[in-house]
């Protein structure tokens, strides 16, 4: 799954890369969490548009806010699940990112967080879905979910799932509502193993309030000391009386 990510590139650099029309100004974020506002890119009238939406999809047909957060949509079932199939057909989006985080269970202690980024540290696009929900009070909520797939060889030692990271040449195909489902399915595959790397970082990332560049400081994992060898026991002192013969 993908439960935290970051956007650290400058807004203008992101705008030039994703070619959206608006000129938003947003600060670098190192610890973006579900339910927070996140930027996505959609296709509207043949042009790419920037939108701020809630991370945690609320289907347009929902009568109330879902009790569980729909932050991820599995590529394997995205076309059949009622929560996602409408958005998969008509409302696909790009989710700009500079990296994301995953946690690995290591022994009996707390899980070790890892930051996953491109090897060249360039921004990338995660495949996403979005929808518009109108609750009973008449307000509107735009929301999104990240599409996930099986992890590649690089990330599988950390976690068995990863976001679908779209190649830049496929961005337009993913956004285009006319793209056939069969072609979309072909895009929802693990990223090449040599595209990303994973580095252990501090457990400070676990607290949403922590949002600073220090979260990316690498954690040096030291090797465990070898177990001590048991000391040889000294032979017991012989207290028996020695005989003359």
Structural class: mainly beta
Strand content: 25-35%
C-alpha Rg, in Å? 25 Å
What string gives the helices and strands in order?
Answer: EHEEEEHEEEEEEEHHE
Description:
The protein has 245 residues and is mainly beta. The longest helix has 8 residues, at 11-18. 11% of the residues lie in helices and 31% in strands. Strands 3, 4, 5, 6, 9, 10, 11 and 12 form an 8-stranded mixed β-sheet that branches. Strands 2-1-7-8-13 form a 5-stranded antiparallel β-sheet, with no helix packed on it. Mean pLDDT is 90; it is low at 237-245.
Question: In a few lines, what is going on in this structure?
Answer:
The strands form two sheets. Strands 3, 4, 5, 6, 9, 10, 11 and 12 form an eight-stranded mixed beta sheet that branches. Strands 2-1-7-8-13 form a five-stranded antiparallel beta sheet, with no helix packed on it. The protein has helices at 11-18, 85-90, 171-175, 181-187, and strands spanning 4-7, 29-32, 37-44, 47-55, 72-74, 92-97, 99-104, 112-118, 124-133, 141-150, 161-163, 165-166, 196-200.
Give the helices and strands, then pairings:
Blueprint: E1 4-7, H1 11-18, E2 29-32, E3 37-44, E4 47-55, E5 72-74, H2 85-90, E6 92-97, E7 99-104, E8 112-118, E9 124-133, E10 141-150, E11 161-163, E12 165-166, H3 171-175, H4 181-187, E13 196-200
Parallel strand pairs: 4-10, 5-10
Antiparallel strand pairs: 1-2, 1-7, 3-4, 6-9, 7-8, 8-13, 9-10, 9-12, 10-11
List keywords for this structure.
single chain, 245 residues, mainly beta, five-stranded antiparallel sheet, disordered C terminus
